Amino acid sequence: MFVRFENRLEARAKKYNELCDELADLMDLSIEIGKHIELYPRADSDSKEKIKKLKGSFQLMSEREGDSKARSQALLETKLWMRDLDNAEEIDWEKKLKVMYNESKVKMAENCKEAAKARTQEFNREIWRSSNGGDPLPDDDNEDVLMIDAKSSLKCPISGVLLDKPVKNDSCGHVYSEESIMDLLKSRPHVKCPNSGCIKIVTKKTLKRDRQTERELKKYQRELRAKEKHADMDFTQQGS
């Protein structure tokens, strides 16, 4: 009975998720442009002013990314709420969606704010490293903590090692390595989500490529290489 409503909500949520992917790609591109400006400044231009403007655009995109995630979450929560109704025809959907969206925004506001702050720090960190031989950003006390948190969140719940070709289960949002989850689905049409405490079902149809986690993996690996390079340089200097 509610299929058409669910399809509409899923379609809108998908559009916001696609927007998040596009914004994340643009933010990654902004970092690369900033690194290029820092490494190859032109004599007839003010590179610092360009970096400043680029950073401003980066911050706006990061805030828009958070807003889009909140909208997508509101749509999905509305869909789940709708399944418990006896008669969806009598619902004022515009009003309900607005209420759900505002509730979701309140819940996600702090997370979005912290995520935007972390993204801006990532911009600062990458620009600094590009012109300072990979050295860590001065006074960046959170870098080691972020690296530990990132490694923990990027582990596959099945294999226990770093994710490889991450796929997300639409039913619960948990992420697995593609090969690991496909191995579980070889002999049966569905399995219980292997993430501890989750009761949702996983099927081949509920699995989707997770571009956001792919980007987080690349970022983690890039920062790990920079950290290892800096450690090697320190070791060489101490031995000389």
- What structural class do you assign from the helix and strand content? mainly alpha
How far do the termini sit from each other? Answer: 75 Å
Rg? 21 Å
How would you spell out the order of helices and strands?
Answer: HHHHEEHEEEH
Walk across the major sheet and give the strand order. Answer: 2-1-5
Strand content: 5-15%
Strand count: 5
Task: Give a short account of the largest sheet.
Answer: 3 strands, antiparallel
Q: Note poorly predicted spans.
A: 145-149
The best one-word shape is globular
Task: Give me the number of helical elements.
Answer: 6
In short:
The protein has six helices and five strands.
Your description of this structure?
The structure is a single chain. By secondary structure, the protein is mainly alpha-helical. It has helices at 3-39, 47-82, 93-131, 143-153, 178-184, 211-239; strands spanning 166-169, 175-177, 190-192, 201-203, 207-209. The strands form 2 sheets. A 3-stranded antiparallel beta sheet has the order 2-1-5. It has a two-stranded antiparallel sheet with strand order 3-4. α1 (3-39) runs parallel beside α3. The longest helix is centred in the middle third of the chain and has 39 residues, at 93-131. It starts with a helix and ends with a helix. The relative contact order is 0.09. The model is unreliable at 145-149 (pLDDT under 50).
